[in-house]
Amino acid sequence: MHFTIAPAQVCFGPVFSVFLGFFMAYSNISSAQTTLSPDSYVVLGLATCYLRQDGETTELQIIEPVPSAYLETLLTGVATSYSALYATTLAQALDHPKTGLAAGTTNVVHLCEDYTERLQATARSYVNRPSATELLKPETTFSELNFSLDSKRILNPKNKVSKSDNVKQHRYTHEVIS
Asked: Which residues, including other chains, have CB under 8 Å from residue 136's CB and lie 6 or more apart?
């Protein structure tokens, strides 16, 4: 196991670097400690997202990995931009990511940004939480979600700051009262 903590030393000083090194060495959260096999369980989701370009909003279908904690939340019935979920293996998700999800749609389906890295992180979440693998059987598509587009997922949001965003402060905020 090898960790580089030089940026932490530069930014936060040696005390933080020692703490970070101790934490990384003894924590089971580290991704280096979780070995993934090609048969590792993952869930992929087909999400409806939007892209803003030149004042227009374009609808996109995106396939992205669904971490174990979010899968449990989705199955409770919360509103989501996912229209379907597909349980599969890490190897199949890497080789044929659109299998099981894109078959039923006529739209062009895209993979999410950083798909491989997010897929590996998602697989680790199921290794660390094996009870979540029992929620959807492998090679199963699940579409009984609370699909809603009320709050649209914008992939390239731009924050527009205006004067009305300023918080009004008390007139004594910057004064020393004696």
From this structure: 43, 71, 85, 87, 142
In 90-142, the DSSP E strands lie at 109-111, 140-142
- Specify the higher pLDDT residue, 31 or 144: 144
69 pLDDT band, cuts 50/70/90, is very high
Domain boundaries, given as residue ranges, for the chain:
1-33, 41-147
Q: How far apart, in whole angstroms, are the C-alpha atoms of residue 111 and residue 114? A: 9
In angstroms, the CA 12 to CA 77 distance is 42
Query: Do the Cβ atoms of 64 and 84 come closer than 8 Å?
Result: no
Q: Among all chains, which residue has been given the structure tokens 């597909």?
A: 86
Report DSSP letters for 91-105, one per residue: HHHHH-TTTTTGGG-
